Amino acid sequence: MPLLDIQQLQVRFNTPEGSVEAVRGVDLQIEPDATLAVVGESGAGKSQLFHAVMGLLPRNASVSGQARFAGTELLHQPAAVLNQYRGKRMAMIFQDPMSALNPCSPSGGN
């Protein structure tokens, strides 16, 4: 069973000009003990994808699809449930890693 299983994840933002699709139909599986780097052009939706998984999107966002962590569905969970995972079992390194990571510490210690 994958540790993280994302199926047909879609993120849209409602704006005064209309709906904007930021992430379209992403499928992704990460096995336990695997390492993954998601890379791409600026504005491709990388951050929005993982903001959706971690429940960190703004109120004007809508999410569809599935995202399971260790078998537990994460999308649309209340903050109290997501807080059991955030920072403890899963984390996100934001776009400026030099301010988020200590280069003298192993990756598990950051």
TrEMBL record:
Subcellular location: Membrane
Domain spans labelled ABC transporter: 24-97
Keyword Cell division set for record: no
Molecular function (Gene Ontology), one example: ATP binding
Keyword Kinase: no
Keywords for this protein: ATP-binding, Cell inner membrane, Cell membrane, Membrane, Nucleotide-binding, Translocase, Transport
InterPro entries named among the record's database cross-references: ABC_Ni/Peptide_Import (IPR050388), ABC_transporter-like_ATP-bd (IPR003439), P-loop_NTPase (IPR027417)
Main location: membrane
A GO term from the CC aspect: membrane
Pfam families in the cross-refs: ABC_tran
Protein family membership: Belongs to the ABC transporter superfamily.
UniProt-recorded name of the protein: ATP-binding cassette domain-containing protein
Organism: Candidatus Thiothrix singaporensis
